[in-house]
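Re-running the complex after MR caught last week's input typo. The corrected sequence lines follow. Everything else is unchanged.
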Amino acid sequence: MKNKTTRFLSVSIVVIIALCVSVFSFLAYYMNRKSMETISEVGTIYMTGMNERISIHFQTAIETRLAQVEALAKLYPQDTDMEAEKESLAYNAKARELDYLALCSESGEFQMLYGDRIEIIDPQPFVESLKQGVKKVAVGTDSAGNRLVLMAIPASYVMSDGRPCAALVAGIPADYIRDILALDENNTLVYSHIIRMDGSFVIRSADAYRESYFDRIRGTFGEAEKEKAEWYVSQLAQAMSRDEEYSCIMQIGSETRHLYCEKLPYSEWYLVTIMPYDTLNATVGNLNRQWGYMVLGSCSLVLGSLLIVFVKYFKLLREQMEELDKAREEAIEASRAKSEFLSNMSHDIRTPMNAIVGMTAIATANIGNIQQVQNCLKKITMSSKHLLGLINDVLDMSKIESGKMTLNMDQASLREVMDSIVNIVQPQVKAKNQQFEVLIRDIIAENVCCDSVRLNQVLLNLLSNAVKFTPDGGSIRVTMYQEPSPRGEGFVRNHILVEDTGIGMSQEFKEKIFDSFSREDSTRVRKTEGTGLGMAITKYIVDTMEGTIQVDSEQGKGTCFHLILDLEEALVQEEDMILPRWDMLVVDDDHLLCESVVASLKEIGINAEWTLDGESALEMVEKRRREKREYQIILVDWKLPGIDGIETARRINRSLSGEDIPIILISAYDWNEIEAEARDAGISGFISKPLFKSTLFYGLRPYMGSADCKKEEQKASEDNRDLQGRHILLAEDNELNWEIAYELLSELGLDLEWAENGKICTDKFIRSEPGYYDAVLMDIRMPVMTGYEAARAIRATDRKDSDIPIIAMTADAFAEDIKKCLDCGMNAHVAKPIDVREVSRLLKKYMK
Amino acid sequence: MSLKECYVSLEGDYEDVLGRLRSERLVQKFVLKFLNDGSYDLLCRSLESGDYGEAFRAAHTIKGVCQNLSFTKLYASSNQLTEALRSGWSQKAAGLVEQVKQDYEQTVAAIRELQKETGA
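Corrected-run output:
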C-alpha cells in the first residue's frame, strides 16, 4: 500500500516536472520565433517606408533638374544652332548649376555644348528610352573619371554632323545626387546605394569601394559563406530583372542586415537600402532574453511550489500511515487485553458459580440437617453476592464502553452516603483487624445534587480496595471536607480522601491504574480477587461527574486516593437544628475531629470543650464538678490513647453523685459487639462516625428529655405561633392513639376535637360553622366509614370550606395507599407513628 | 422496675418513644393506658367469630398503637399478622396469631410490673 502511493507520487512528480519544462520551453521558443518574425516585418515596413521616401526624394530632385533642363531647352527653339549659342548655353547652364551640357545622338555620341567631354556608361537603355521620348537619367563619366549624372530630355536639335539629336543632356556631379539623397549620412542606421541591374554602383555610399554591389555582398560574406552570398546575389539580380521590389534579411556571420531594393523612376537604377539589424536585434534579443529569464523564473517558481506541495503531502500521508499503524496496534492491544480479561473473567465467574452449585448439591443431599443447610445457604448467599458484583462490574463496563451510562442526579444527603458506606465497610475492617477512622470537617452543605448510587459505588470501590490491599492490622482513613467551588454560587467543592497503610503500588502501575482491564501484574496482587474493572469504572464515573481523582502511592508504604467533585448544593429546607445550650465535653484522639465537632456543635447552639485523651477528660470533669457547673453531656471516642472510651465512662460514672450524665460513645466501628459492655459501664448511647452536623443533631436530640429543655420549649412555642388556638378535627378510632395524639399536638397550642369514626367526623364538619375547623387529621382504617369515604364526603359538601386541609394518618405507607388518599381529595399524608414535627410542618403548610 | 427496664422487658425501644413523646411522664402515662386498650380483645373476639375483616382492623390498630409506643416486639408480630389478614384467613395467619398472643402477654406482664412499682 505504501509503495503504491510512493510510486504514484514519484511518477506524477516526474510527469509534472516534464510537463512544466516542456510547456515553458515551447512558450519561450514560440515567443522567440514570433518576435523574430515581428521584427522582420517591422524592419520591412520601416525599410519600405525609408526607401519610398528616398525614392520620392530622388524623383522630386530629378524632376526638378529635368524641369530645369526642359526650361533651358525651351529657351532654344528646335532649330537653333546650338554651336553658335554656346555662350548663352554656358551662361544658362551655370545659372542652373548644370556643369555639363551636351547633345546626344541616337547612337549615343555626345556633342558637348558646355563643359568637358563626357561619356555615358551604359548608353544602350539610355538611348532606347530617349528614342521613345522618355526623359532619362543615367550615369556618365568625365574625362577625369569622375562620375556624372546625366539628365536627358528628348530634343531634336541639329547636331554638328547635321543629324538631329536624340536628347539634350545635362550633367551634374554624381555627388550631387548622393548629397541630395543624403545617402551618406553616417549617423543613420540605414544607408543606401544606387546600383544598376548588373550590380554596378551608380552612386555609392562613402565606404563602398567596390565597383559592383554584388561584389560588395560577396566580399562582406567572405569565403566561408560564398554559397549564401551567391544565393542572395542571384535573388537580388532576379528581382531587379523582373522589376520587382526585393526584401530580404541577410545573415552575414554574426551580423544581420535587412536589404531592400526598389527601382528608381526615370532611370535604370535601383535603390538599395540596407539596415543593419543588430541594434534592433539587440533590443529584441534583450527582450527575448528577459522573456526567457521570466519564463525560466516562473517555471521554476511553479515547479518549486508544486514540489513543496508534493513533499508536504507526502509527509502528511506518511504521518497518517503511521497513525493508522499505531491505531491498529492499539486496537490489537485492546483486543488482546479484552481476551485476557475474558479468560480471567470466566475463571473468576466460574469459581463462585461452582461454589453455588456445589453448596446447593450438598444442601439437597442433607436437607434434614438444618444446620448444614443453613451453612450451605450462607455460603451460597456470599458466593451469589460476589458473583453479582462481578457481573455488575462487567455490565457497567460494557455500558460505559457503549457510552450509555448516565447519571441520575437527585438530592442526596452526604451524611447518608457516608453512613451507609461506613456501615458496609465495618465488617470487612473488623475481619482484618484494621484500624478505621472517618473524619469530616468544614462541611458547608450536607445535601447536594448528585447521583448517590454512583457516588456510593465510587467510594465503596476505593474503600474496599483499601481494605483489600492493606494487610491485617493496617489502618484506613477516610476524610471529607468542603470548600467553596470555583464553579460559582450554589456549588460546593467536595474533597474525599481515602488513605491506607497498605502495600501501595509501583510507579508504572500508578500511571496505568485507571486503564480498563489492568491489574498490577505481580504475585501478591494476583492473590487478591477482583475483575480489575473497578478502577476504570470509578474513573469513568468521576469523569462523568466532571470531577478529578488523583492517586498518590508508594510501594510498601501506602496509598492515598484524592477525589475532588464540584457538586451543586441541594436546596433543602433544613429545619433549624438547634439544641439547648448545653455544656458538653468532647473526647477524641484526633485533634482535627475535636475542632470540627466543636465547631458544628456551636452551630447547633451548644458550648463544647474538647480534650484528646481519657485521663485529661476525667480531670476536666472533676474540675467542673468542683465548680458546680458540671457538663451536661459527654461525647467520648472509643479508641483513645490511654484508657479507652468505655473505661473513661466507667470512671466518670463511678465518681458521679446523683444525676446520670449522658455519656455518648462515638466511633467509626460497629457498635453491636461492645454495646453490652458499654451500657454496663454507663454509656447511654452511641453515635456513629462520620459526625456531620445533622448526625450530631439527630444523635443528641433524644437526650433533650434528660437535660434542661425549657429553652427549647420556649423556642418551639415561638415557632408555633400560627398554630395557636387552631381547631383541628382528628378522626381516629382507637382511644389510646387519640390520647397520644391529643397530648402531643396540644403542646403545639392546637385545639383538637375527637371523631371516633369517619361518619362522626363528617357530621361534625357539616354541623360546624364554615371556617370553624382549620384542618382535619384523618385516620384511614375506621369502622362505619373509612377515612377515604369521609374525605370524599367532605370534599363533596357545598361549603365555603369544603377545601379544608385533610391530612391522612396511616400506618400503611404503600404507594397505592398514598395515591388513594390523594385521589380522595386529601392534601397530604403522614405516616404513623405520629411525628409531631412532621404534623406541625404539614399543618403550617396547608392551613391558611 | 423503672420505665426503661420495663421497655427492656417487653423488648421495646425506649429511646425511640422518648424521642417521640419527649417526656417520661407521658410515656409512662400511655404505657399504663395500654392495659385498657380494647384492640386485643376485639382481635380475639373477631377471630373466634370468624369476622376476619374486623380482625384485620383490630390487628391494624394494635400495630398502630405499638408504633406510637415503640413496642417493637409486639409491633413486629402484629404487623405481620395485619399483612397476613389483609387477604383473609390463612394457615400463616393462624401461626402469627399465636405469636401475637405471646408477645401481647409479655408486654402486658411487663406493664403490670411497672404498674405495681409506681403504684398507679
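None of the earlier attempt is carried over here. The radius of gyration of chain A is 66 Å. Residues 2-180 of chain A form a domain with the Beta-Lactamase fold (CATH 3.30.450).
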